[in-house]
Design a protein that fits this description.
The structure holds 2 protein chains of 2 kinds.
Chain A (H helix, E strand, L loop, with lengths): L2 E7 L8 E7 L8 H14 L21 E3 L2 E2 L21 E6 L7 E3 L2 E2 L2 H8 L22 H11 L6 H5 L6 H12 L2 H4 L2 H15 L9 H5 L7 H16 L1
Parallel strand pairs in A: 1-5
Antiparallel strand pairs in A: 1-2, 3-4, 3-5, 6-7
Chain B lengths: L12 H11 L5 H4 L3 E5 L3 H13 L2 E5 L17 E2 L11 H11 L6 H21 L24 E2 L5 H19 L2 E4 L2 E9 L2 E9 L5 E5 L2 E4 L20 H8 L4 E2 L4 E7 L22 E5 L2 H8 L13 E2 L1 H5 L9 H16 L8 E4 L1 H15 L6 H27 L8 E10 L2 E2 L12 E3 L17 H21 L13 H20 L5 H16 L5 H21 L11 H25 L23 H4 L1 E6 L8 E6 L14
Parallel strand pairs in B: 1-2, 1-9, 2-5, 9-17
Antiparallel strand pairs in B: 3-4, 6-7, 7-8, 10-16, 10-18, 11-15, 12-13, 12-14, 14-15, 18-19
Classes of the chains: A alpha+beta, B alpha+beta.
Chain lengths: 248, 667
């Protein structure tokens, strides 16, 4: 395959960025998108051009590091995949591909396609945990049976990889899908009930303080989420939030 | 250098850990506030250790090279975590888990450590459930289990194919609670460049901030290394792209012995290599072997026809298939341990029965499981058990609920639907049993420097059983190190804060800066990846699934030449004071280039076959591994002496007092 790449280049957080064009060929349809980027970077390095910086690590769709906006979509045209799981067979020979970073005020660019998502970590610090010390004396794991359906729903919410596609996709840069996934996981489990009120209030407050936008229920986040985190979680977050507001 | 002292407590095996905990020194809560601990790495071991140490009251500084601790590669573990809970009532016990793990490790692990691991395994599950980890449950609401290779009970707890993710997010949440309290200071995007020794004790580290390249000094009363394994030595592995040996290699060069570097796990069920462009390999969980049957065609002509695309696997009837694991190992069948399954796959492919274009793949087939589950469900629902369409539909749904994400992952990579045609799999480098030598307290041969999780060596011997890595990482981090570190730190309650202005810190920082500048100044003609790929090929071809003395000697010479070439001809672009991934990678690869030589040297010394270490010279008539217990029941612990070729071997003799040394048989 022969491709034209239009890549966002930005030296660091302070300088202005711009789109640069690169041409590459001999790309196999079996390559992953990041392997195609490896080919580009090998070529640029040998030409004495600074290679394109991008975040990546596990390359199997679970660490949540990779974060490109490809042809206007978070993680590119395929569904239920991260960029590292996207394969070149999804593109046509001769195609022009636009590659940009995840854009949001809360995700400042570090370099090229690398953004700072530490705002997500800070939301988790505000309440994304159950307060239990490590002791070896917690009660037996089977002492509280949990309905399978609830456990499965909690698991589905917990599979969020924290990549930020939801924020990058949302026209308001809202983090509601991300926050609701964590709130839902704990809200569905008896272990999470005790701190439910404070958790939802604190996490939502931190989300607002960071500068994430509001949710207007467009649902784009669910479409682009590589893990298929459901909008039902946002509905649950809203219920939990209202409940907490009334009772606190 | 003093003789290796494993500090294993005296007394009967089942009382060692309890007695040890009762007798080691403690640090009072008030004094813990005066003590700083550095933890490098935020995977299951590092994350759980940082959280627990902070809960106890120590001031923790935690470091990871990723942009968030949640992204450490433990996240990618799929299948499950073992625990001797005996919830299934199938006869499991601490002793059985201990026994299976020692046997699975081919009798090259330290008995006392493995017993402790089995003892705390049940606590891990309790702890994780209390943290809100959503393990799989049955319809009665209780925890579900499945079975893994090398055992005859169901003791593996799981969360679909994302167990590692859920456990790591549990440890991450425990860290977040402590970060919020200010008890953990978190350093994301920081890479450890060296350890700093003051008066012979580990007192800090030098780091590089990966965003702006700043070299920083961090001091503490103890340093805990939880930086994972070194599988990326092979270039292609199931490890993350950033996984590296640098932290463990740096402490090795400062005095920590490196144990059993040649003990590497080649995992049998990975997606095969498709071409030269490939940057990493993807695992298909061992849990799939609960329901998948492994086979190749019985006839070479059929294998050839499949390779050429003239025949489809589903067109071959049962008589024409060779379920070679079921044939060779009837007792354990498809659930033999990983080393055995990997070698058997290689044997069939080398003999010409491989089924993909490169001839390096075997089938993992779910057709029988889909029918079995489908019939069961049809019976339950009162539907026609002989209606193939109904049965298939029901069966597929059950398989999907068990392994859905793995099947999806496979389909995205290979572009084939594994519900309709068998998966193709081949062994790939996955885990390293070898690592930093530690005593019973998990301390290395550098006082005050500890190693936990995959970064140490002690629990898995020469082969790791499935679902044991998560168990060991969390055992070390939650339940072992937080106790044992106190025994060392009890001497430091009056020490006070460690200054970073000393000559030792200054010298270490200077060395790091020099190394970086010299890499950037080389301005050669070949990229870092060029060297990494070359090194990987040498190691895979000559030190891979089977090894022999001649090839190992060759490998040592080739690596030496490659290393020399690297320092004269590597091209590292950019500057030291910016975000520069190629530079970070160059530093990691420079360490792999040294480790590679020690790896081959270790494999050359071990004149026996055991676990993942298969020396062609030492095998039975049936091609099974031939151990030499008389001469090799020891841990190889290597002391650094200026270069890998000068490394000095120390032996820790392994004593088996509770488990009889036997030939490992899964027949």
């Amino acid at each position: 395959m022969k491709l034209t790449l239009k890549v966002w280049r930005q030296k660091n957080s302070k300088e202005k960025g711009r789109i640069e064009s690169y041409h590459i060929d001999k790309i196999s349809p079996d390559m992953s998108f990041l392997e195609m980027m490896d080919v580009l970077n090998e070529k640029l390095t040998l030409q004495g051009v600074d290679p394109v910086a991008f975040d990546h690590d596990c390359r199997e769709g679970i660490c949540g590091s990779c974060s490109m906006f490809i042809n206007g979509e978070a993680h590119g045209p395929d569904r239920l995949v991260t960029t590292c799981q996207l394969h070149m067979r999804k593109f046509k020979d001769g195609e022009t591909i636009y590659i940009e970073p995840f854009r949001a005020k809360t995700f400042p660019v570090i370099k090229d396609l690398v953004v700072d998502r530490s705002s997500f970590d800070r939301i988790q610090h505000a309440g994304g945990f159950i307060s239990v010390n490590t002791s070896g004396n917690t009660q037996d794991a089977n002492s509280i049976p949990i309905e399978k359906k609830k456990a499965d729903n909690a698991f589905d919410a917990a599979t969020c990889i924290g990549c930020g596609a939801c924020v990058a996709t949302c026209k308001n840069s809202s983090a509601m899908l991300f926050v609701s996934a964590k709130v839902s996981q704990y809200a569905l489990l008896p272990q999470g009930e005790i701190e439910a009120t404070d958790r939802v209030l604190n996490m939502v407050k931190q989300m607002d303080d960071e500068g994430f936008g509001n949710c207007t229920n467009t649902g784009a986040c669910e479409v682009e989420c590589p893990k298929g985190i459901s909008l039902e979680n946002i509905a649950r977050l809203n219920r939990e939030f209202i409940k907490a507001k009334i009772s606190s | 250098m003093a003789k290796l002292d494993s500090k294993v407590p005296k007394g009967p095996i089942s009382e060692k850990w309890v007695n040890h905990k009762n007798n080691i020194r403690l640090v009072s809560p008030a004094n813990k506030r005066q003590i700083d601990v550095i933890v490098v790495g935020t995977g299951l071991a590092g994350g759980s250790a940082a959280a627990t140490l902070a809960e106890l009251g120590y001031n923790v500084k935690s470091f990871c090279f990723q942009d968030s601790p949640r992204r450490a590669h433990s996240i990618a573990a799929q299948g499950g975590i073992n625990a001797a809970k005996n919830y299934q009532g199938d006869g499991d016990s601490v002793h059985r888990l201990f026994h299976d793990t020692v046997k699975g490790g081919d009798y090259r692990s330290r008995e006392s450590n493995v017993h402790r691991l089995a003892e705390v395994s049940a606590n891990i599950i309790d702890q994780c459930v209390a943290q809100g980890v959503p393990f799989a449950r049955d319809y009665g609401g209780l925890l579900d289990n499945r079975s893994f290779g090398g055992v005859l009970v169901s003791r593996t707890f799981y969360a679909k194919g994302q167990t590692g993710q859920q456990l790591l997010l549990g440890a991450y949440s425990a860290m977040n609670r402590q970060i919020a309290r200010g008890k953990i200071e978190m350093f994301n995007r920081h890479e450890m460049m060296d350890v700093v020794l003051v008066d012979g004790k580990a007192r800090g580290i030098i780091t590089r901030n990966l965003i702006d390249g700043k070299i920083e000094r961090h001091s503490a009363h103890a340093v805990v290394i939880a930086s994972g394994g070194y599988g990326n030595l092979f270039f292609l592995s199931t490890n993350a792209m950033g996984s590296n040996v640098s932290a463990t290699w740096k402490i090795h060069k400062k005095g920590a012995y490196f144990a059993n570097p040649c003990f590497t796990q080649i995992h049998p069920t990975c997606i095969p290599v498709s071409g030269d462009h490939q940057s990493k390999l993807t695992l298909m969980s061992e849990s799939l072997r609960n329901d998948g049957r492994i086979w190749v065609p019985k006839a070479k002509e059929d294998a050839k026809a499949i390779r050429e695309g003239k025949l489809r696997p589903i067109d071959l009837n049962e008589e024409k298939r060779d379920y070679y694991l079921e044939r060779r190992y009837p007792a354990f069948g498809n659930l033999v341990p990983r080393d055995v399954a990997s070698r058997a796959a290689k044997e069939r492919c080398d003999a010409g029965f491989g089924v993909n274009k490169t001839g390096e793949a075997v089938f993992l087939d779910f057709a029988a499981a889909i029918v079995r589950y489908g019939k069961e469900k049809a019976h339950l629902k009162g539907l026609d058990e002989d209606d193939i369409n109904v049965v298939h539909e029901l069966g597929k749904n059950i398989v999907k609920s068990k392994y859905g994400n793995l099947f999806q992952m496979y389909e995205k990579i290979v572009d084939e639907n594994p519900y309709e045609t068998p998966m193709m799999i081949y062994p790939a480098v996955h885990y390293t049993m070898g690592g930093t030598w530690v005593d019973y307290n998990l301390m290395t041969t550098i006082p005050g420097c500890f190693a936990i999780g995959e970064a140490n060596f002690s629990d898995h011997g020469a082969n790791r059983l499935g679902a044991s890595a998560l168990m060991q990482g969390l055992a070390d981090g939650y339940f072992v190190l937080p106790y044992t570190i106190g025994d060392y730190l009890a001497d430091d309650i009056r020490t006070g804060a460690i200054s970073t202005d000393s000559k030792e810190f200054e010298d270490a920082e200077k060395d790091v800066k020099q190394k970086i500048e010299s890499l950037l100044k080389t301005k050669g003609t070949k990229t870092v990846d060029y060297y990494h790929k070359k090194l990987g090929k040498i190691i895979w071809n000559k030190c891979g699934m089977s090894r022999n003395a001649d090839e190992l000697k060759n490998a040592i010479e080739e690596i030496k030449i490659l290393r020399k070439d690297f320092y004269s001809n590597v091209l590292v672009p950019g500057t030291s004071d910016s975000f520069n991934e190629p530079l970070a990678k160059a530093i990691r690869v420079s360490d792999f280039l040294e480790l590679g030589e020690l790896f081959a040297k270790d494999a050359l010394v071990r004149n026996e076959s055991c676990g993942g270490h298969f020396r062609e010279e030492y095998q039975s008539k049936e091609g099974e591994a031939l151990r030499d217990d008389k001469n090799f029941t020891f841990v190889s612990a290597w002391e650094y002496k200026g270069s890998p070729s000068d490394a000095v071997l120390h032996k820790e003799q392994l004593n088996y007092e509770n488990i009889e040394l036997k030939t490992r048989s899964y027949k």
